[in-house]
Amino acid sequence: MKEGLSNRIIPRLGIIPYSITWLILLFSRLFRKSRLEYKELEYNSKLCIEAGINGWDSIEFKELYQSACEFLSVNKINKIIIRPGESYLSQVRNELDKFSPTHYFYDPRTGSQEKILGLWQAFRISLLLYSRSIIPIVLLTDLSVRTWRTQSAIVTAMNGIVISFMSTRLAFPIFPHRRLMGPSLMPFSENTLKLLKTLKDNITDVPPNKAVFIGSLYEPRTSQLKEISEGLEVRNLTLEIRGRVLGAKRVPDSEYWSALINSPIIVTTAGQIETADTDWAWIPQLVYRYIEAMACGTLLIAPAVPGILRYFSPGEHFASFSSTQEAIDVIEYYLQNETERSVLAERGKARANSLIVSQTFWRCVDVNLGKDSLT
To answer: Which of 108, 135, 225, 328 has the CB geometry, 3.0–4.6 Å to 372, for a possible disulfide?
Structure first.
C-alpha cells in the first residue's frame, strides 16, 4: 500500500457520515414499516432502477435494464428517468409511491455531483428507502472516487449491498461496511449476445492486422496507451486508439459493437482516473471491456486485475500484461500468430457467453443480498 496521509487517513473519513447515518437509521427503526407490506410473497420482488439524466443512453445501463428484465421479468422492473430541473428526491419518492418496489438500484452519479448536496441526497435516499423497507442495491462504478464511495456507504448503511468492480479484499480497508460485492462483472444481457452473433455473421471484410483501443481517455491510461503505441510503431505494428475524453459524446452502440467485433485484438488498461477526489486509484478494476470484448469473440489483451480468476483466466480466456513493455511484446506475439490468437479468442468467447447465459451478475447479487435476495 502506498504511504502518506492522503492514502492512510483521508480515504477512511467516509466512516464518519456512514456512522451518523447508521445511528439515525437505528433510531428510526421504531417507526419503520414492516417489510411484509411490500413483499408478501417470496418471489414477488420488484426493482426500481435509476440511471441519471443521460444514463439510459449508455450501453452499461441498457444492459443493466435488459439483463434485469431477463432475470426477473419486465413487469417487475421500473426504469426511472430523472428529469433535469426537477427535484431529484421528489422524483424518486413519486416513483416509489407508484411502483412500491422491494429493491432499489441506486447510482451515486444520478443526483447532484456537488459534494455536500450529493451526500445530503444520499442521506435522504437512505432514510426514504429504510423507512419503506426497500433494499438498496448500489452500483459503485469507481470505488476510488471518495464522494461516490461515501454516498454508496450512506445509502447502504443499514442493509443492502454495494457492487464494485474492484477487488473486495483490497477495498475493505477504506470501505465502512462489509456488504461489498466485487470485483463484479458488467451486467450483460442475452438479448445483446444474439445481436452480436448477427453482427459477427455479417462480417465480410477481413479486418486489418492491428490492435485497437476504444473507450474513455484519462490519466494514467492516456500515457500508457501512448507508450504502447510508440513501442509498437518501432516494430512496424499499430495500436489504433479510438478514444474520447471523459464526458464526450459516445459513439452509437452499433458502431461500438462493430468496432469490437471487427478488431483482431482489443487492448485495455484497468487503472482508474486520478483526481483530487480519488484515492487508491492504483488498484486496477474489472472494467467493462473485459466481458464486452470476449463476448464479441475478439482477443482481449488486458491486465490480470485482482479477483478476475473467479471469471476469467489469463492465458486461457485472454492475454495479460503487467507493464507497458510486456503489453508491447504480447500484442506483437498475437498479431503475428493468428492461429493462437483465434483459439484464445474462442475460449474467451465461450467463457463470456457462459457467464452471461447463466446470469452470473444477478445471481451474485442475490447471493450477496442473502435473506433480502431478489428471488
So the answer is: 135
Would you call 61 helix, strand, or coil by DSSP? helix
pLDDT at 33 over 80: no
Q: Are 321 and 288 in contact (CB under 8 A)?
A: no
pLDDT at 205: 65
Burial class (CB in 10 A: 0-12, 13-18, 19+), 44: exposed
What lies within 8 Å, CB to CB, of 86 at 6+ separation is: none
Q: Tell me if 151 sits within 8 A of 108, measured CB to CB.
A: yes
* Residues 135/104, Cβ–Cβ less than 8 Å: yes
Q: What is the DSSP code string of 16-37?
A: HHHHHHHHHHHHHGGGPPPGGG
Count of CB atoms within 10 A of residue 255's CB?
Answer: 11
pLDDT digits (tens, 9 = 90+) for 292-347: 999 999 999 999 999 999 999 999 999 999 999 999 999 999 999 999 999 999 99
Largest CA distance in the chain: 70
